[in-house]
Write a structure and sequence with these properties.
With 318 residues, the protein is an alpha/beta fold. It has two domains: 207 residues, 3-Layer(aba) Sandwich (Rossmann fold); 98 residues, no CATH class. It has eleven helices and eight strands. The chain has an eight-stranded mixed β-sheet, with helices on both faces. Helix 1 packs across helix 2, helix 5 crosses helix 8 and helix 6 crosses helix 8. The radius of gyration is 19 Å and the shape is globular.
Length: 318
């Protein structure tokens, strides 16, 4: 496993009130005078982890992590009201202003790449560089592939567990069936659905399945926010006006340098997504990691991203 940079404790933490309802948790670590970079976590609803700081040299970077609305240490927990892509885009810009940052690099994978692209297309002048991994464009074919039929043919055993909470007569639209349970009043059904939804992704995220996926992704509190918020976004088509919104608006961010890293055998977000993004945005560089699935922690993906942030720091010093 490639070695992460030294993970320092944050020197600043807090909650930023971004609406009358929501407060987002944030933390700042590394060099206070370093290159500002914001890490956009996945999900939506995944929350941040201390390991995420390790993708940046703490002597070179001012590292900002935050938890998106409704998850991690943000408040209120697992809340779906006022929780849309465009709310989160505005939250990122508010956080930048709150920290008195003029321009920063953006680092995001999976749903984090979706939100990073939406943010860059809305606030291109705020973005110095994009580091994107495991591209997810939140199109109907991508949701269909992973949550209805497609990935099921590669992981039929894990998919069988994903199907269990849903009666056979509701399985023609699994996202809608899950949404009904994840937002319903039956607490037992909600917990069962949340665990099954979350562990389906956990079991399929790595090239070699993680035997601890049930334990990690199935933890009750994490699974609740992760499943509810994901399903909320997917039911609402990511709150995008069109299915290919991010590709159709690529011209708005064409001048921002960017790197795309994607695992060849990514089952959660097929590599086709990265290829299509790169085709629409040829100014980006694309690295397909041959022996890797979806997870940020896949050795080849970790190595490529750490090298990319290290190279970026050297370039900015010149």
């Amino acid at each position: 496993m490639p070695k992460l940079h030294t993970i320092l404790k944050p020197y600043k933490t807090g909650h930023l009130k971004v609406s009358n309802l929501h407060e987002i948790y944030y933390e700042v670590s590394g060099n206070p005078d370093g290159l500002p970079v914001v890490f956009i976590h996945g999900g939506p609803g995944g929350g941040s982890k201390p390991d995420y700081r390790g993708y940046f040299n703490p002597e070179k970077f001012k590292i900002i992590l935050f938890d998106q609305r409704g998850c991690g240490q943000s408040l209120p927990f697992s809340e779906l009201k006022e929780n849309t892509t465009w709310d989160l885009v505005e939250d990122i810009e508010k956080l930048k202003s709150h920290l008195s940052i003029r321009k920063w690099a953006i680092f995001g994978g999976s749903w984090g790449s979706t939100l990073a692209l939406a943010y860059a297309q809305t606030y291109p002048d705020s973005c110095e560089h994009l580091f994107l991994r495991g591209i997810f464009l939140l199109r109907k074919k991508e949701i269909q592939w992973f949550y209805q039929y497609g990935a099921s043919r590669i992981y039929p055993d894990a998919f069988a567990d994903y199907l269990k909470p849903i009666p056979e007569n509701e399985r023609d639209d699994l996202v809608q069936a899950y949404y009904k349970r994840l937002t319903g009043e039956n607490e037992k059904e909600r917990k069962e659905a949340a665990k099954a939804w979350a562990t389906w992704e956990g079991k399929t995220s790595k090239l070699i399945p993680d035997p601890k996926a049930d334990e990690t992704f199935g933890e009750e509190k994490f699974a609740d926010a992760f499943a509810r918020i994901e399903c909320h976004y997917f039911t609402n088509n990511g709150f995008f006006k069109t299915d290919a919104h991010l590709l159709e608006n690529i011209n708005k961010m064409r001048d921002i340098p960017g790197l795309i890293v994607h695992g060849r055998y990514d089952v959660v977000c097929p590599v086709e997504n990265a290829w299509e993004l790169h085709e629409a945005w040829p100014e980006s560089s694309l690295q397909i990691i041959e022996a890797a699935g979806h997870s940020l922690a896949e050795p080849g993906i970790t190595e490529a991203l750490i090298k990319a942030t290290d190279d970026y720091a050297v370039l900015k010093e010149k």
